[in-house]
Write a structure and sequence with these properties.
Blueprint: H1 3-19, H2 25-34, H3 41-56, H4 58-67, H5 78-89, H6 95-101, H7 114-123, H8 135-138, H9 146-153, H10 157-163, E1 171-174, H11 181-190, E2 195-197, E3 204-207, H12 217-220, E4 224-226, H13 229-237, E5 245-248, H14 255-262, E6 269-274, H15 277-290, E7 295-299, H16 305-310, E8 315-321, H17 336-339, H18 342-360, E9 363-373, H19 382-391, E10 395-397, H20 400-408, E11 421-422, H21 425-428, E12 434-440, H22 443-446, H23 455-461
The structure holds S-adenosylmethionine.
InterPro entries: MeTrfase_RsmB-F_NOP2_cat (IPR049560), MeTrfase_RsmB-F_NOP2_dom (IPR001678), RCMT (IPR023267), RsmB-like_ferredoxin (IPR054728), RsmB/NOL1/NOP2-like_CS (IPR018314), SAM-dependent_MTases_sf (IPR029063)
Protein name: rRNA cytosine-C5-methylase
Family: Belongs to the class I-like SAM-binding methyltransferase superfamily. RsmB/NOP family.
Length: about 475
């Protein structure tokens, strides 16, 4: 492809992403390239890198269009203007270079008109950042989200959000059902994939260089799964042990289910639940590849309502990996910065609370409940847990450092302090995950010291399955 043709493909793909804002950008991009198999690997990488970079700095590029009165600012042809602005203020091209790419030639974008040329001329010699950009523009977030991020990080919010601009590394979790970390590392090395152990996750390997692993034998034989270190740590806090009964209440396509099952040596039971059966179905092949045979899948639909009721108090551990704003994954999904709407947050918070209430019923007395999100917003995290504990005095928070000690078999590093797990790309090099570790108080404790247990209650305190809920 000529440079101009790559620019045209960049604009075309961004147009697709913008017009399918309800779909994740990576899925739109996959479909785009699948329909254009004639685009070779090098061109594909170049176009993707530019598109992802532009999505990360969209707010600042948009600011430049507004400042220079670029006509794209007022029209639907936003990607065309954004890409031209990127060539000027990020790549530092001269206007004449940009005009040569936008010349209307074969496979190249239409020529610049006078208004576009006037705007781009004002960008010549400037860089992306400008002292007049407000913080939220400089940090490439929407204005309405900024106060939530400030609440999350306080003074440090600028540095924390800036760290979300770096593309994430490729993280793998070694499947202990099939290999030790050293065996998996050696198998990957034989495929030319160099890895290093992770800072925190005991079964994690991080690629030294970005490469695709999914076609290789180590992946195909189930020795490793692709999983961010933060996600591995959340699954680790479930502290799954062989023989336990574990519910993964929002299991999706099974990322954490797989990690939980790997800790159980195929002994005991994991029930993967989700409202979307199609997502659960996607986990089936991954579970087979991993050699995990103790996982049952249950769609949370009408058919399973009675079954779910009977499961009250039946689980040693329940994980709620709740649907959330995904603000902690912006380095991976930069389009999320621009597609998130205030009404999404307003809908998610009560939904998360309802999911937590429903999932909490499944926990047996003395059992653990882990609530996690890949969000960094306090409304979905700390405040959600505080409200839950108000509604459910039969639960108590356990400091994450205590659970870490038991689950990871190691002292928690100093930077993991605090009652909850709050991971960030800046401080931990992971996605921005939150996790709270709660315990359902043993029956006698939950009901207060004054009430003596009758025989019936004693049976329940032993953790046998019950209908209904104590709360
Ligand atoms: C963050 S994703 C789960 C990711 C998954 N645990 C993993 O590690 O790959 C949240 C999931 O919650 C599911 N969900 C949404 N509403 C739900 C509900 N009311 N009950 C259970 N699951 C729900 C979504 O379908 C989605 O798959």
């Amino acid at each position: 492809m000529t440079p101009g043709a790559r620019v045209a493909a960049t604009i075309e793909l961004l147009d697709e992403i913008v017009s399918h804002a309800d779909r994740p950008a990576d899925l739109v991009a996959n479909a785009y390239f699948r329909a254009r198999r004639y685009i070779g690997g090098g061109d594909r990488r170049s176009v993707s890198d530019r598109v992802w970079g532009i999505l990360r700095r969209w707010g600042q590029l948009r600011w430049w269009l507004k400042r220079t009165n670029h006509p794209a600012d007022q029209t639907n042809a936003l990607p065309r203007g954004i890409v031209a602005a990127d060539l000027m203020v990020v790549e530092g091209r001269a206007l004449a270079d940009v005009e040569a790419m936008f010349d209307g030639g074969r496979y190249r974008p239409d020529p610049l008109d006078d208004a576009e040329r006037r705007a781009l001329r004002q960008m010549e010699g400037h860089s992306l950042s400008h002292p007049e950009q407000p913080d939220w523009v400089r940090l490439n977030v929407q204005e309405w989200v900024a106060p939530h991020l400030q609440e999350a990080y306080g003074e440090a919010w600028g540095r924390e959000i800036a760290a979300l601009e770096n593309p994430p590394p490729v993280d793998l979790r070694v499947n202990r059902l099939k290999a030790t970390v050293a065996e998996a590392q050696a198998a990957l090395a034989r495929e030319g994939i160099e890895t290093e152990p992770m800072r925190y996750a005991p079964d994690g390997l991080r690629l030294k260089r970005r490469l695709s692993v999914v076609a290789g034998e180590a992946f195909q034989n189930g020795l490793v799964e692709v999983q961010d270190e933060g996600s591995q740590l959340v699954a680790g806090l479930v502290d799954a042990q062989p023989g336990m009964q574990i519910a993964d209440y929002c299991a999706g396509a099974g990322g954490k289910t797989l990690a939980i099952a790997a800790g159980m040596n195929n002994k005991g039971r994991v029930v993967a639940m989700d409202v979307l059966e199609s997502r659960l179905d996607r986990s089936a092949q991954r579970l087979r590849r991993a050699g995990a045979h103790n996982v049952e899948r249950r769609a949370l639909d009408g058919d399973n309502r009675k079954w779910l009721k009977r499961q009250a108090g039946a689980f040693d551990r329940v994980l709620v990996d709740a649907p959330c704003t995904g603000t902690g994954t912006w380095r991976r999904n930069p389009d999320g910065r621009w597609t998130l709407r205030p009404e999404d947050l307003a809908e998610l918070v009560p939904k998360q609370a309802a999911i937590l209430d429903a999932a909490a019923r499944l926990v047996k007395p003395g059992g653990g409940l882990v609530y996690a999100t890949c969000s960094v917003l306090p409304a979905e995290n700390e405040r959600q847990i505080e409200a839950f504990l108000e509604r459910h005095p039969e639960f108590a928070a356990v400091p994450v450092t205590d659970v870490w000690r038991d689950a990871m078999g190691a002292e928690p590093p100093a930077e993991i302090g605090g009652p909850y797990l709050r991971l960030s790309p800046l401080r931990h090099g992971t996605d921005g995950f939150f996790a709270a570790t709660l315990v359902r108080k043993p029956k006698a404790e939950a009901e207060g010291p004054d009430r003596s247990l009758d025989q019936h209650d004693k049976v329940r305190a032993d953790g046998s399955a019950r209908d209904g809920d104590a709360s």
